[in-house]
Queue: 2 jobs
Job 1
Amino acid sequence: MQHIVVFPILFPLFSALLLLLPPCGKSVKARRFASVGLAAISLIINICLLSHVLDIGTLTYAIGNWQAPFGIVLHADLLAVTLTCLASFLSLCCIVYSCAGDDAKGSFFHPLVHFLLMGVCGAFLTGDLFNLFVFFEVLLIASYSLLMHAADKHNTRGALHYVILNLVGSAIFLIALGTMYGVLGSLNIQDVAARISQLTNDDVSLAKIGGSLLLIVFALKAALLPLHMWLPNTYSNAMPVVAALFAIMTKVGVYSIIRVYNSIFSPGSGPLGAMGQDVLWFAALATIVVGTIGVLASKDLRKLVANLIVVSAGTLIALVSLQQMQATAAAIYYLIHSTLVCAALFLCVDLIASQRGKVADRITTGRPVKQGLLIGVVFFAAALAVIGMPPLSGFVGKIWILKATYQQGDYALFWPIYLVASLLILVGVTRAGSIVFWQNTSKDIDKIDVKPIHKFKVWAVYILAGVSPFMVIFAKPITDFCLQAAMQIHQNPAVTQLTGGL
Amino acid sequence: MLGSVIIFVFAMLGLALLLNIWRLLKGPSVPDRILALDTMYINTIAVIVLYGLHNDTSLYFEAALLIAMLGFVSTVALCKYLLRGDLIE
Amino acid sequence: MMIYEWLVSILLLLGGTLILIGSIGLVKMPDFFMRLHGPTKATTLGMACLLIAAMIYFSVTTAGYSLKEILISIFLLITAPISGYILIKSAIHHKLAAKEGTQGIDRIEKD
Amino acid sequence: MELLYSVCVGVLVGCGVFLILRARSFPIVLGLTMLSYAVNLFLFASGRLTINKAAILSGSEQYADPLPQALVLTAIVIGFAMTAFSVILAIRARADLGNDYVNQLAQANNKTGVRK
Amino acid sequence: MNRYFPAPSTSILLLVIWLLLNNSLSFGQVLLGTILAISIPIFTRPFTEQNPSVKRPALAIKQLLVVLLDIITANIQVAILIVGPNKRLRPAFVKVPLDMTDALPITLLASTVSLTPGTVSAEVYPISEEHHTSDNKTPRYLLIHVLDLQDEAKLIEQIKTRYEAPIKEIFGC
Amino acid sequence: MALFWVPLITTIGSLISSRAAKLSRNETAAVTLIAPLIALAVCLYHAPAVFNGETVYDHIQWLDVLGIHLSFRLDGLSLLFTLLILGIGCLVIFYARYYLSAKDSLPKLYAYLLLFMTAMLGIVMSNNTIQLWFFWELTSISSFLLISYWSDKAEARKGALMALSITGAGGLALLAGLLILGNIVGSYQLDVILASGDMIKQSQWYELTLVLILLGAFTKSAQFPFHFWLPHAMAAPTPVSAYLHSATMVKAGIFLLARFYPALAGTEIWFLIVSLTGLTTLLIGAYVALFKHDLKGLLAYSTISHLGLITLLLGLDTELATVAAIFHIINHATFKASLFMATGIIDHETGTRDMRKLNGMWKFMPFTATLAMVSAASMAGVPLLNGFLSKEMFFAETLHAQLLGSMSWLIPVLATAAGAFSVAYSARFIHDVFFNGDPVDLPKQPHEAPRYMRVPIEILVAICILVGMFPNLIVDSILDVASSAVLTGATPVFEIALWHGFNLPLLMSALAVAGGVVIYSLRKHLFQFQATLPALEGRYMFEQGLDVVLSWCQKRISQFENGSLQRYTIVLIATVLFFAGAPLFDMQKLVGGNQPHPIDMFNAVGTGLLIAGAVATVIWHRHRMIALIMISIVGLMVSVAFTRFSAPDLALTQLSVEVVTVVLLMLALFFLPQKTPKESSSIRVLRDLMISTGCGVVVGSICYALVTRPLDSISQFFVENAKTGGGGTNVVNVILVDFRGFDTLGEITVLGIAALGIYKLLNNLPLFMPSTDSEGRKWAREKYPLLLATISQTLLPLALLVSAFIFIRGHNLPGGGFIAGLVTATAIILQYIAHGSNWINDRLLFNYRKIIASGVMIAFICGAGSFLFDKPFLTSWFDYFDIPLVGKTELASAMIFDLGVYVTVVGATMMILASLGKLTANDEAKSETKTIGAK
Ligand code: NA
Ligand code: NA
């Protein structure tokens, strides 16, 4: 049973390889069947791991039986495992969605999704900085390929930007790792955290450089201003099912910041405690502002949703930068919620686009959406959730966020920005929705000839969006859970050592 | 004495490399530069062999062997590009 | 000083000189075709000298014979002419000017 | 010698960055390649520079730090994969867009909603 | 010579090289070398076109020594030419008519020419656009570049007798 | 039944109604009525307790983390509102059944209505402020749905968006206010908050909280200057308007003021803000209403005005004013609902609501006319009707107002003026519609409404009259408990009577009526005067504002995210430069304590070559072929550097990667332009030069700082355990395949994915194939140079042998699977170059996809094998065996892992080449014609 920690990484790898080999490699049907099945198993594995972690607390797993800090150690705490669950759930939904036909529009869709899942889960679970780099690359290369799935020329440009920026990002990551290792002589996050508090003199500055570079890399992935500029175009040009899957990717950046920031730069870690807090905080606020402007400026729905992801990234990082338990707990809740809702929105936008002919998802007068009710309900629900209106999960997140920032005393700037942004997003999304669904050229819906939406797509979207009410109905256990996860994050290892654990 | 001979030969090889890079930078034609690069590869092999001798280790033998192999492939590829554009038509 | 050291030293010096001369040719010769001769020949032999020197050295200083250096020599002997050939081909393709007074330019066929 | 090494790293970074800031895909790929050379050298140097102490066990006392070497190896391979991908993506972009200009042109904004 | 042992000469060569690489004659290395020496040619067989085989190995070894000797003299000659004044050099392109049509002997001859005094093989005429086929019997020429041409006829004669003839004999063509 | 059933039942009712598409209209209406009737029954069941002065609670502990609980209360105020909401709700449901035409969906309207009802009930019954906010926002959403019911009408969409935006904004302010309030008190429970009025008012956050909460209330109840959304919400079906603007939506704001009265009221600032806002709204609404030609427009502004009146009352510092406010809430709900319904009938029967067309309706619909006239009279404040009573109380209270100091006399004067206008517009409603000559161009021939459509109006009018005549009998008790809820127990002594004797309020009423008649008779002149005033419409300001904001955003975004990769890169790099550079200045000394190695010739030459190569690459970057040659020098020198600094494995890897990369770059170059045009301005080049120099300096400095200081690293462990724990003497290789094998597994996965991705990129790609090189030379005729083809065949077995050699020794000496794989790949690349891809593909009959997958699979299985022994993933195994003749031989699982690496590398490289080869090999004809990629 101890080995289950590594399964969230290994099983997707195994799945991807199986999907490349006969008999799955050959027929589309077999591949779809296998892919959905394997993704479901992946989800089950993750859920088992989650319950295991809930039972017995944080698990560490030494790959190759080489103990930390020498070998690579996986670190499965509640947050990490929650996120792997989230990732595999999202993948499953996207895979089901793609089985309606999107997967056959290019090669290797299913293996790539599983590879991506492997990378994402690896990044969530690993407790080693360099290993984190490796998994970043796994998920990046898979994402590059997925980005070009069924690509037309707009995708190509977006992908080119994304790839080049991320390659530069990878180079920065390596420089950061080199600096960290060069000063601290270790790569294990816990060990680095322990060593960093003992630095003196100029070594502190060097470690600070390494840490800043790390944070920059994570901020790039998390789409923090001013490093967010790649995101709107890239996501809006990707195939929607891919974009939906990518909703988890900015979260990898956010997660890495949570992980690194609260261990290596936790308030208790000597001269570099809470390093760069102000920068992160203001950048996050600016990200919310710019994302909101982006939402209002969007001329098509996909771009709008992409900008919503920017806003959510800003919100998350603002919370994370506080380095405070309530804020982190709120961030965890909001992270789960926003990932799934944004993904649902991307898929929903795809459904809308598929029914509006040439206008597709542009926010302008056009053909009515034939299956308006079917799509409209889920769009409305997802929009409500993303805006943070009751009765869906967004409102719990919103209240928690406001409350957490209030308790920190950081509301003077955050509240106005956040609330005004909420309002503007409300206006933007409502306006877009009412134009797309209601402002139509022809009224005769029956005459429009579009293919009815494939049932797989409907299932996927409804399941994704269905999580939002679920998160309200079960808000009590979920909020308690988030708090527990945040508590694990904020257990300062240095303090733990001194007091013999909390 | 062997030690100082090695140093002296190092100097000769260093000079040779500098001559190579001079040709490389000056050109004037692309084949000239490729020729200079190819020569540079071979001279580098010489340097590495000599370095192994200097340090009394044969750990670098494979590096020399690989430079020989890969330098050849590289030269061929560059020339093929000049000739046909498509390397693997 | 051991005799092998003498041998090695001489071979090293010879090799170094040849390699240097090859590179001098590369710089000094007036046209591409003439520049080619230095690297393809002098450098190849120079390398052979160096490698034989290394062979001798390692065979003496370590237990057993060390003959693998000869492989590099063989490899260079095989590939150097081909490199030269393909280089000239591309030079001809690029219609590089030969030194004035080169005989038989007209024998080059259009490729 | 450490100084020379660092100068090399600095020059490579500088040249790489300059190339990355060009507007065409090919120089950018060259720049990325150069930057990855620089980064590999940098990462390697984080284990400090040692001469003639290769990490092959042979009874000697001191060895070069093998860990950064292993890291650089991984980084080289990953860099290779990434460079290969970006090179091919550049080809693809040329085919799709008709040029190798990386920036979005003003006209290219008129996106049509047609999707295949 | 069959499916499982397609090229014995290559295999032997590979085994020798393997042992050279490992600097060892231990049984283990011989065994491993043999396995590789047998298995690699099986894999590469499709990549090897049918070439005339060596008919006279002894002559081949003699020729090899001749060429090695020539290489040494050639190099010294060329070194002198390089170091000496350039102006006196009389470069030239010379076309040598060949009596052979197969690819391997021509390649060997061209390589020999390139490695020996003052000459570099430049081209084999006529040029074929696609893959070379050995059943093509059109007469061939070797274009060579000479660093310092004294006497063209003598040079052609020398190449044909000293290098081409033995190679023809070795391959029996 | 517990209180929470009330909103729950209406929610269920909403769901049921939405599924009622198959029922007839009567059945639908009947089914819909069930839920509110049950809810009403529940409320009435609890009513006796409330009338006894108790407050009924229902509490479910929910989110302790956030302090949000499901908590309901029913006190006098709540009861009053629930009765209004449910009572008028039932009437509206009944009325809508007749109002809505056959083509409109009744279930949809009912579902939305009940949803809205739920939200309203939730607001008035909440005992938790966050829960209150929850329902508050729900009213915004459900009213959005109701207003946009006829979504194909632009008016409806715009009106709905505006209503949602304004009330949404208020909602957010309210949330902020409630959160702060909760923080002051330490609880979100209303009873706690209401009991902590003093603490709140003394808090430093009081003003902020108050303003935020008032913003919520004012936007919802359409107080000036947020009133403009309300008239446009009239785009909704009339039953909806009747419901939203009489008893519910707008009253939510009033409710909020009343609800928080104990907690927030009683201070100067409260009275000032609330009363002035109310007064302004009262005046503006009353004035504008007169000029609206649309019947619903008139009613809308009248509603605004009456809401202002109630607000003003709540802002007056007397207890009786509060009682009056509550009384007027009831009265306004009744007469306004009936007026809306009557308007609906008129609209329904004539097809228009324009008073310039509607004339003389008395003749066509006398019953409706009578009902409407009674209601309108009540609105005007005519005695014997309920409107009169509360208005007179209002007049009386304005006389006590002190808040303007010596100018307080203005308040009764202005109130009377507003009363006059209200009489005037009521008069217009009656006279202009039912009398005033004959109708003009009516779309329909008018006639009396269906019998049952009038029933709800009749009920409401009856209430108006009954309350007006017997106020004590009917409303005394509810008014009493509601007021005591607002005033927290202190029940004021009040007396509602028709006749208080001749007093000032009566005079004011009389003045108002007289003034109203005068104003109405002068209406022609007033209309003309009004026409000369500039139209200052909140709606246009809102819409233009929205347009301005949107276009501003678009402009900013297109400036900011302008699609320029260079900008994105430069931002990233500048960020790095700043954050990596700044700490360098904090350092006292860059150089650390280690003794530096001396510079020797070897290094000097190497450095020179490397720098020359790098700089030359930059200089020639526009001549791409030369740049490629130059960058090869750099690659070569980097591997020499690795050799020099004791990293033979790295040198080998770098070399082999270098060659494959150069080959790939050349392949790319063939399909790309050969040269880069000069594009950048010199300023830009200068800028880039500065940034790149900065980067170089910073990274170089960091590097120098690192290499000159001592390092205490974990690496000794690897050296010590490589042989004993990993079974190899090449520590680097042991780290790769054992200590950090997980990295390597990830790394080959990356390589495999890259190859798959490249295949994906190139699949069926039409390519531009130049037929000449950059200088216009045609390509050489000979595709496969003879000598090269021959030699490459010879070299292949040799290269494979070398790669086997490198592979096998890797564990103990420099080498390993990756390098071996690349050597093999390079050998095959040479074959590709020498023979072309068709020739190779005929001979190399592998499916690279499978090879890659098998390679990674081998490594994976090797790692997973340790599960069999219940060891962690990738736990290595090795042992020494004495094999006869061979001797002591080591067998290690790491070798299998390395084999996986080898296979993956070969497969991936080959797949890349094969994909590229496919581009040109398939279709030779393409190379003749220039085909620029056009799908
Ligand atoms: Na091809
Ligand atoms: Na009229």
Note: Residues 494-502 of chain A have pLDDT under 50 and may be disordered.
Job 2
Amino acid sequence: MSGDSTASEYDSDVEAAIRENHPALITYITAGDPSLEDTKAYVEALDRGGSDLIELGLPFSEPIAEGPTIQAAINRALEAGTTPEGFFELIDDLDTEAPLLVMTYYNMILQYGPSAAVRPFVERAAETGLSGIIVPDLPAEEADPLREACDDHGLDLVFIVAPTTEGERLERIMSQVSGFAYVQARLGTTGARADVSNATHDSLSRLDDYDVPKAVGFGVSEGDHAAEIIEADADGVIVGSALVDIVAEHGSAGAAPAADALEAKARELKRGALRGGETLTNDTEDTPEPEQP
Amino acid sequence: MSGDSTASEYDSDVEAAIRENHPALITYITAGDPSLEDTKAYVEALDRGGSDLIELGLPFSEPIAEGPTIQAAINRALEAGTTPEGFFELIDDLDTEAPLLVMTYYNMILQYGPSAAVRPFVERAAETGLSGIIVPDLPAEEADPLREACDDHGLDLVFIVAPTTEGERLERIMSQVSGFAYVQARLGTTGARADVSNATHDSLSRLDDYDVPKAVGFGVSEGDHAAEIIEADADGVIVGSALVDIVAEHGSAGAAPAADALEAKARELKRGALRGGETLTNDTEDTPEPEQP
Amino acid sequence: ATFGDYGGQYVPEALMPAVQELEDAYERYVLNNEDGFMDEFRERMREFGGRPTPLQRADRLSERYDREIYLKREDLVHGGAHKLNNALGQVLLAKYMGKERIVAETGAGQHGTATAMAAAHLEMPCEIYMGRTDVNRQRPNVYRMRMNGAEVNSVEAGSGTLKEAINETMRDWATTVERTHYVIGSVVGPHPFPKLVRDFQAVIGRETREQIREQAGRLPDSVVACAGGGSNTMGAFHEFVPDCADPRFANESSGRSPRDEDVGLYAVEAGGSSLEIDAENAVAPNSATLSTGTNGVLHGAMTKLLQSEEGQIMESHSVSAGLDYAGVGPELSHLVDSGRVTPVSVDDEAALEGFHRLSRLEGIIPALESSHALGYLEEAHEDLGDLVVVNVSGRGDKDLETVLEETEKRDLEAAPDVEVFDG
Amino acid sequence: ATFGDYGGQYVPEALMPAVQELEDAYERYVLNNEDGFMDEFRERMREFGGRPTPLQRADRLSERYDREIYLKREDLVHGGAHKLNNALGQVLLAKYMGKERIVAETGAGQHGTATAMAAAHLEMPCEIYMGRTDVNRQRPNVYRMRMNGAEVNSVEAGSGTLKEAINETMRDWATTVERTHYVIGSVVGPHPFPKLVRDFQAVIGRETREQIREQAGRLPDSVVACAGGGSNTMGAFHEFVPDCADPRFANESSGRSPRDEDVGLYAVEAGGSSLEIDAENAVAPNSATLSTGTNGVLHGAMTKLLQSEEGQIMESHSVSAGLDYAGVGPELSHLVDSGRVTPVSVDDEAALEGFHRLSRLEGIIPALESSHALGYLEEAHEDLGDLVVVNVSGRGDKDLETVLEETEKRDLEAAPDVEVFDG
């Protein structure tokens, strides 16, 4: 059981976590990589490091939306025998400041119950105190059953907005946003990239008209990236592959060093986000005159 | 230059050699195997050993009518650089009791002259004193040009009669026999075989009505075979592969031992033929009464 | 969902616009022949692809089974299998859609080679994803693709086979979706792929239906086709689906009504070495998805799957690489549930016997995939009626090495003595 | 002789009755369709063989050469080459003649596999002779023949290639002639083989002639085909021979008269590495018999040959095993002498470029044999008129290894980078 279930002006814990901690840091790691025990330590470290929201990946064997880094993490987690039930027990066992989300593929949700239906998973998720669900292979068009179940159990179902999401589809998705809009900064799969800025601004500017929290992911690995993203007017920054890399690097060295490194990284990213937020405030308040030629 | 060109009651040296030496021994070796010098010694040995007619193979690269033994001899002769001109020089150089025949494939005859015509070969053959030609891939139907050239130069063109030669074709071929009819005792290619008798009788009995010399080949390797063939009413027996085997066995030991072995083999074969001839005479003159049961 | 409970579009958000764009293109070009698309497709399949393929009466099989056996000769299509029907259709569609590049996955290499051929023919840049294991064991197909100018990317993840290749192709597509079309290799994936691929492959059954009427004077009692993903299966079956007394299958769009002639449809899956699941290792020693699978979502569609209780996709197994897939087309799942298609399976050994039997008796070396249909014919011919069509979906030249290896391990009735193979 | 100065029956006496029996059968069954022989042959070529094959407009070659290029797609015949046209015809004829067994020679294995397929199809025991060298380098074809139930005898003599295989098959035939038919693999051998094989292959040109009329509205300016023994060449040319102004070529038997439309016929031989003879070693580094050969007798017929001055047959050479033969069909020799057919040649390199070019531009991997015709098209298209038909006599899957090896040695313009072949 995790997250502070405070009644607030916001629709959900998730929205509150972003709005109240603006600019927010959202972190991701894969549960069970390299073991569920280690994941517990890592999540607590990310929480300590200043994560405002934590996504935990429940591993699925065919992670078609992930890049090589998270794919490898998922494989390690599966080889370690990670099961949905083990995952839920971990969540049950966690007590974090930041609300927790589960990120998994639709088949994992379907198979949790006895007959390819979504409710048993959602019920169990709600029971463990998870705040929301992100499903990379579930577009809005196929999401009704899961959304209804989530609504019934007070969970957010987070939708992804891609660079290709446009027109009516964009409107429809934005009108259904629950928790926050997961803004995919560029096409492709997850993975840390050196350069994040150009696409971010474009992605966000399309969403200017929608008054919902927007968090940007796909490619963030450093505090400076976080700053740039926030400067581009995001409400939050999502970091995954860069953290999974840390887990992988410390894989054999035991949980403690990895946890320390994760905590430090989270701190760096949160500082970057805050820096970006300040720049933005300054810029807005005090736009410098263009230099005279 | 070889053979005694005596005027006789017969149409040709070749026919005379068979009729006058009845039952006749006809021997074959491949010229140039392993060298033309050695061939000279071998031919003289075969002559001494009692050959009544000697066939010399002029090697052609695609000997489709030969079995493995003579194929291999031909390959050795070609590797030794045997040419038609070398072959003719050998013939020029030979002085044998037995008339000599050349056995070769039609393309060798065609290519001797400048423009795929048969006459230059036949002229040169006649000039060297060869008495006749045998061409395994020239059936009677295609033989007119070569036959005319042979006629013009007093050479015999020997035709083969196969087990499949029947009816009109048999009649036509038998009416054109020049020298002797080369009776192929069984289907297949040349080569020594352990058993020769059964097919021979059948092959010859079909030719009873034709008054031409008949020599039987394909498969003869021992004196006893020769005897059986003559008993079956042949006028001559043709031996090739068994002699080529002797050449091959002595290949590296030099010409003299091979020549001795060839001479001895010829003697054995001729004795066998004579024995067969006596049996036949006795049988004919003095047929034993069938035993009473 | 697209077909009863099955189908749908379970893809990352980034791909949804492309999938919807494809839906639109499917409707315009394929269903409504806009700009003469279908005319051009059919013309190119005639001239380039070698259609129609014959429906051949198999004299010796007919004698052996004491009934009329006809073979639909998809092995004669350019490239050696029915795969080109789909690959050419999709590459041409990509061209009509203004795409500048295609990607495709391939397992054994049959779909990859067909796609590379179609791409060369239509001057379309092409990249093929193929698992590392498959690259190593299907090298001639890699060469063929490269000869046709395609790039071949080997996928190092997982077991390095078809599943991983599909995952990786989806990732490429998700990155390049605006200018790229993903030529999916079977009647799987998100809507409209299962319909699109089916419609390109339906020429098999359409020709068969006409040919059998002309040659045998009536519709067959049964049509037998192997099923992996199910593209040759749906291709062979589609035109026959309404040929049954059950009014649910009357094809309204073509104005058909239930038929008097009842055509049985048999989807023959790879039984591998056993139909039992190896639960401990989460491995299925077979690819019999229709016969033993459970419902779930894989590669964009709800369908029957070989999966663990927790929802992890299992490694499937078959002597035939082209059937070795843990999913199956959603429409086949639907037709099986609704009773129109009968799912059956034969094991590796029966397929190998089928391979040798057709090679020796009819002078046709079938693909190992198709050999499953022939194995089922041997086992169940008595239940198939008097007039049977078997779809020979591809030729078996590609399978010679595998067949030799697998034959050496067994004592097969129909096989030549492979120990003394060079005379 | 059968064709001007060429042809004839230069075979051992033992074979003459069989050859004459075949003449009789040729006349009765092939020329006069006795017992419906030709009807059955054509029907089986349709159902079993996949005829007719398409005549395809090659869009990108047409663009490249700025004229209309059409490809006759014999690569789509069952087995992958035109060879089945002849093999099936002869095995069926053997059946009509009451023969109980067939033998055949094979070089690269194409004729052997076609014969084995036909024999399996028609339930005829079959033995194939193949040189030891060819057995070793064409193992997949050995497997295919064995899969079809044929025995494969490797011939150890000489260089272990086609010539030796023919010699050995003739020996088998000479031994078993009464119950055995020799399915010769090209328009070579004693009369009536060159006519018989030509007539079975003539379907290529007959279809082409109809198709080009329908698709292009007129006869082509030229027909280009590769020539080894010459069976695809004569098959492609035969129907077009009378299509010229010269009255000598009016085909009286079909009641034709000289045509207005003048169709050029180009037989493209394998130029190998050079057209010069290596006299010292009696080796021809090419197989350009029509272009450089002299008249002589080989394997039963008077024709043009690669031979030494003394009459020994030379070893020929070509990157393409199927063209690697020192003889050629006698009718082609005659048509070349009389000016109706133009003999040309391209070297190994041009053929390899042709292979890669068609693979990349058209998505068709041609046989290395056919690649010679494509190499000539590249070199001489300006002389071939506005409408050109190239016979793609077979597919190139069988040649992948050879092409890789030979491509690695060279810097070929049209080839992919074969150094990094697995992506």
Note: Residues 71 and 123 of chain C are 34 Å apart (CA to CA).
